[in-house]
Fold:
Amino acid sequence: MSNIFSDIDIYRVSAPAMHSAFTDLHENPFDKTGRTLFCCYREATNHVSWDGKIVILTIDKQTFRVTRTERISLPNTDLRDPKLTFFNSNLIMSCYAKTKHNDDKKSYNALSFLSSDGFSWSSQIKLGVVGHWLWNYACLEGKAYGFGYHRPSESISLFSGNPMRRMLLHKRNVFGLEKTGKGYPNESAFVFDHQGNAYVFLRRDADTFSAQFGTSKPPYTQWKWYDLGIYIGGPAAVLLNDGHFLVSGRHIDWDKRQFTTRLWHFNRETKKLSELAILPSSLDTSYPGMVLDKSNSTLYMSYYSSHIDQQARVYVTKFDDIYGLIQRKKIRL
Structure:
């Protein structure tokens, strides 16, 4: 592959393993010094194996040195796609659990694990979401909202509730093949602004494969959708101070069959994505986590990639002046 990557320093944080992937990143809310981050990911035999466990790292912001490692696992269960959220003084690690039972039956559950310090974790909490893969959620005024996707109907539905107890159906079939003619919506990045408006960046894997941008006002039962024209796998997003967004995820060059993880600026008014960086990445890659330090405009990112030895590893990086990068790219706001 030609050198298409932006000039970015990356740091490997995953320990040696056969497959390390599906990351998320969060400020350490228990660290009063503000010097550390939590990074989580799935460690397993391969991308689809049934032995996935969740690894949670404490990482120094300056050196990216891993200072502590915790693991969460369940017998005969593949824990997938971990996400970190801070809610009611607890750090919540949510994931999707695929379990094999002794009678050869299988079950699928959205789970939460709670921690009051980031090191000790509770037993599993089943969130009661049946038939949908609850991908991610955001919290507002003591309540969590997030989309779950239903593969047979190629649709997504909105769930809401307490992620420490139970999530309930909020609005069925918000977007999908039957309703819009656009197939297989699935993974999503859900973000609230300071006025309580909701935004989502949505992956699709059918027909044109183009990602969607959705907006809604309370009570989040009516949504407007905009086609972004490109594929974004494993999307993550953060809100900038000016109301626009940073978006990251997997990009596919369909002509070259080239997979990379990229960072974009998204203009909320024009609905335009502008590329900011191509991270060192290829093959099996994506599922980034993002933390924006609003006080000094530093963006921290986690992601995984197989660009070294074709082995899936987890990396972290940072952009010290994200607003300066936007200006240098001459993005019109």
In short: The radius of gyration is 19 Å. The chain has a mean pLDDT of 95.
